[in-house]
Amino acid sequence: MKKLLSVLFFVMLVFQNNFAQKIPVEKKADKLLTVLTSKLQLSEEQVKELKPLLVAYNAYKKQKKKEKKQRKKEDIKLSNPNKKLLKEEKKERKRSRI
Questions:
Q1: Tell me: the pLDDT tens digits for 11-36?
Q2: What are the residue boundaries of the structural domains of the chain, listed by start?
Q3: Is pLDDT of 93 > 70?
Q4: Residues with Cβ < 8 Å from 30, sequence gap 6 or more?
Q5: 49: closest CA among 96, 11, 88, 75?
Q6: CB-side exposure of 34: number of CA atoms within 13 Å?
Q7: Cα(40)–Cα(89) distance, rounded to whole angstroms?
Q8: How would you write 14-76 as a 3-class SS string?
Q9: Could you read off the pLDDT of 34-46 as tens digits, one per residue?
Q10: How many Å is the maximal CA-CA distance in the chain?
């Protein structure tokens, strides 16, 4: 519990200013808060403190996922000729084994 709260607190401090506007990931935060309140029996004050943390954390994860997809697309675009060469080399190796 302490570890989770400390991680969430750190995320809130880092991203508090960047995510002050309403974010579509609030729904996810609400779902997580309902689960946390049912399992950990959090008070309303704790829920109010955790909601911005969860929203910021979910927005951070969403942005990282977008960045990862973008890097993957760029890598595919750059490495297409290399992939063809690798496939040809593998075929040649298989032929030489036989």
A1: 666 566 555 555 566 777 777 778 77
A2: 2-97
A3: yes
A4: 51
A5: 11
A6: 5
A7: 56
A8: HHCCCCCCCCCCHHHHHHHHHHHHHHHCCCHHHHHHHHHHHHHHHHHHHHHHHHHHHHHHHHH
A9: 877 777 777 888 8
A10: 71
The pTM assigned to this predicted structure is: 0.45
Containing 3, the helix (H) or strand (E) segment is helix 2-15
Spell 27-62 as b/e; 16+ CB within 10 A means b: ebbeebbeebeeeeebeeeeeeebbbbbbbbbbbee
3 state DSSP class of 98: coil
Structure tokens at 22: 């309403």
User: Tokens 């593998």 map to which residue?
Assistant: 90
Q: What share of the chain in percent tops pLDDT 70?
A: 70
Using the predicted structure, report yes or no on whether residue 56 has a pLDDT greater than 80.
yes
Going by C-alpha positions, the residue among 57, 37, 56 that lies closest to residue 45 is: 37
